Amino acid sequence: MIVESMVKTGKNDYQLSLISLLFTCCLFASLAGCKVSYSFTGASVSPEIKTISVQYFPNRSRGVVNPTLSQDFTDALKDRFKAQTSLELINGIGDVNFEGEITNYRTQPMAITGTERAALTRFTISISVKYSNIIDPEGNFDATFSRYEDFESSIDFSSVEADLVEKILDQITEDVFNRAFVNW
Could you report the per-residue pLDDT of 55-104, keeping only the tens digit for each? Predict the structure, then answer.
């Protein structure tokens, strides 16, 4: 009786294993043709898009001149795409292309105090971006992205300029990336 019970259990285990194996094979076969893509950035890049290009963004703003701003922004935009996509960054024109110019780089007084002196100064950078997608032209855009940071007027602008530029360029490159690939 014990032997008979062991044989029956062994036969059931064999059938259960066979059914599990067949189910697993069917599952893999049905998923073999599917392509699943995950992104922690929320980006939605068409699989047909393979290359990306970023042209040099000249500084055409009036007033205060930052001699490295054009290169800093161009490099920051390239770095953003390298870090958040698997697209190949190329010279020339890619499947998707970014070009434009820096249109605004200025400071202005904000929050006037009772003594007619500004307590805060607002530093603003604006960049015009033209995005071209040869795979899906419906996503093309031409837009201006602008961000600012406020700082205390008692602080000399040249002492905080580098940090503020870095913060603003990070925000603008994120905005450009989101507009192009996250569809907001």
Answer: 999 999 987 789 999 999 999 999 999 999 999 999 999 999 999 999 99
CA dihedral 20, 26, 28, 31 (to 10 degrees): -140
State whether 55 and 145 are in the same domain. yes
Dist CA 125 CA 164 (whole Å): 10
Burial of 182 (0-12, 13-18, 19+ CB in 10 A): middle
What is the crossing angle of helices 69-84 and 157-177, to 10°?
Answer: 40
Length of the chain: 184
In a domain, 136, yes or no: yes
Identify residue 86 by its one-letter amino acid code: S
pTM: 0.74
- d(C-alpha 175, C-alpha 184), whole Å: 9
- 100 within domain boundaries: yes
The answer on 14 and 105 residing in a single domain is: no
41 located within any domain: no
